[in-house]
C-alpha cells in the first residue's frame, strides 16, 4: 500500500507546493522548521483542507480538490503518534491499548495485542497508569495504541522531539522494529539527521515548501547539494554488516568489502547495520597515511566539491564502503588540489561515530 500526496496551499508569505509517494516502511519528511513538514502531515490527517491537491492511500482517495472529495479525519484510518504520548491518564496501559483496538474498523486486519506488547516491550507496564511511566515508555504505549487501531498508515510528527538523549536511544530501536515488521506506510517528521539515517526507508527533503530531493537515506544524505539543515549536519549513511566482534572491544563491519571499526555494537555477527558518518569527522589525505592512531582509512575518489558561503567546502567521495562526505576548508581544497576524479584517502576515527548514529 502506498500513500500518494500532491498538495498546494498558501499561508500569507509561505506556499507549500509538494508531491511525493510514501511506500510501506518509513518515509521521513526532513527539513528545517518552517519547511512544510507538519503542514503536509496535517493535510494527510484531515486537519487542514488544502487549496489544491490529491491524497490517496492504496487507491482509496482521501482528498481530491478537483473532484470535490474530502474524507473526514475519523474515516481516514490513520494512526497518529504525537510528540507527547497523549495517553488517557485515568486508564491503565492495557486500557489505553484496548481503546485503540476499539476504533479498529469492522473487518479490518487487526494486529494481535500480544504481538504488539511483545514488539514494544511493554508487558511489565500493562497495569500502570501513564503518570507512572517515563517519556519513552509513554511513547511506546502510544505506538501500540496506534497499531491496534488497524491503521492503513501511521503519522508520526516528531515523536522523539520531547525526549532527552537517553529516552531517544531507548525508543529508536522500537521504531526500527516498526519499520521492519509493520506493512503500512509510516510518514515520519524529523529534523534530526541521525533519526533520518537510522529509520528512513525513503527520505523526502523539503526546503521552503518544495521537495528538493527524494530517495534512500544514503542517496539523499550523501548528496552535497541537499542541505536541509546546513553544513554542520551534513553526513553520509553507510550500509554495512557486522563481520566480527574482537576481544579488544571493537566491532569490525564489512562496508562493501572495506573494513570499518567501531566501539563494540550489541548486534550479533552477520546483522545489517546502518552507520551515519558526520562530514566534520572525515579527514582527507592525497596519499595513504602512515603512523596514525585512526583505524579506518578508506581509499576513494572525489565525486564533487561544493564550496560554502564561508571558508568551508563539502567534498563528496566514492569509496568501496559507499558515498562519504567530508567537511574541509577551501584552503585545504586548494592545497590538496581536490577536484572530481582525484584519488584520496578518507580517515574516520573509530570513536567519532556516536552510538545514536548506528542502527539496525
From TrEMBL:
Its EC number is 3.6.3.29. The keyword Nucleotide-binding applies. Residues 1-233 form the ABC transporter domain. SMART domains: AAA. The keyword ATP-binding applies. Keywords: ATP-binding, Cell inner membrane, Cell membrane, Hydrolase, Membrane, Molybdenum, Nucleotide-binding, Translocase, Transport. It holds the Pfam family ABC_tran. Residues 291-357 form the Mop domain. Gene3D superfamilies: 2.40.50.100, P-loop containing nucleotide triphosphate hydrolases. GO terms for molecular function: ABC-type transporter activity; ATP binding; ATP hydrolysis activity; molybdate ion transmembrane transporter activity. One of its GO terms (cellular component) is membrane. It is an enzyme of class 3 (hydrolase). NCBIfam families: modC_ABC (TIGR02142). This is Molybdenum ABC transporter ATP-binding protein. It comes from Rhodosalinus sediminis.
Amino acid at each position: 500500500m502506498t500513500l500518494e500526496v500532491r498538495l498546494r496551499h498558501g499561508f500569507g508569505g509561505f506556499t507549500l507546493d509538494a508531491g511525493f509517494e510514501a511506500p510501506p516502511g518509513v518515509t521521513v519528511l526532513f527539513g528545517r522548521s518552517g519547511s512544510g513538514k507538519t503542514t503536509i502531515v496535517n493535510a494527510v490527517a484531515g486537519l487542514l483542507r488544502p487549496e489544491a491537491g490529491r491524497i490517496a492511500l492504496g487507491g482509496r482517495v482521501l482528498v481530491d480538490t478537483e473532484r470535490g472529495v474530502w474524507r473526514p479525519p475519523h474515516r481516514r484510518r490513520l494512526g497518529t503518534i504525537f510528540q507527547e504520548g497523549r495517553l488517557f491518564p485515568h486508564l491503565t496501559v492495557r486500557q489505553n491499548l484496548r481503546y485503540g483496538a476499539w476504533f479498529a474498523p469492522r473487518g479490518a486486519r487487526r494486529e494481535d495485542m500480544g504481538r504488539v506488547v511483545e514488539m514494544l516491550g511493554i508487558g511489565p507496564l500493562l497495569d500502570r497508569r501513564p503518570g507512572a511511566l517515563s517519556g519513552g515508555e509513554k511513547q511506546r504505549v502510544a505506538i501500540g495504541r496506534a497499531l491496534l487501531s488497524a491503521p492503513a498508515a501511521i503519522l508520526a510528527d516528531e515523536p522523539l522531539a520531547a525526549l532527552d538523549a537517553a529516552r531517544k536511544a531507548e525508543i529508536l530501536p522500537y521504531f526500527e522494529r516498526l519499520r521492519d515488521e509493520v506493512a503500512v506506510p509510516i510518514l515520519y517528521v524529523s529534523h534530526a539527521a541521525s533519526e533520518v539515517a537510522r529509520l528512513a526507508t525513503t527520505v523526502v527533503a523539503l526546503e521552503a515548501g518544495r521537495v528538493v530531493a527524494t530517495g534512500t537515506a544514503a542517496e539523499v544524505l550523501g548528496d552535497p547539494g541537499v542541505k536541509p539543515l546546513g553544513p554542520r549536519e551534513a553526513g553520509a549513511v553507510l550500509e554495512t554488516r557486522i563481520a566480527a566482534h574482537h576481544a579488544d572491544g571493537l566491532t569490525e563491519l564489512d562496508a562493501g568489502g572495506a573494513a570499518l571499526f567501531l566501539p563494540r555494537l550489541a548486534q550479533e555477527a552477520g546483522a545489517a547495520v546502518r552507520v551515519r558518518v558526520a562530514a566534520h569527522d572525515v579527514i582527507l589525505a592525497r596519499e595513504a597515511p602512515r603512523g596514525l592512531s585512526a583505524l579506518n582509512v578508506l581509499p576513494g575518489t572525489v565525486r564533487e566539491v561544493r564550496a560554502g558561503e564561508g571558508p568551508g567546502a563539502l567534498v563528496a567521495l566514492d569509496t568501496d564502503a559507499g558515498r562519504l562526505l567530508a567537511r574541509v576548508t577551501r584552503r585545504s581544497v586548494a592545497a590538496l588540489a581536490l577536484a572530481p576524479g582525484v584519488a584520496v584517502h578518507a580517515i574516520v576515527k573509530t570513536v567519532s561515530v556516536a552510538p545514536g548514529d548506528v542502527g539496525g
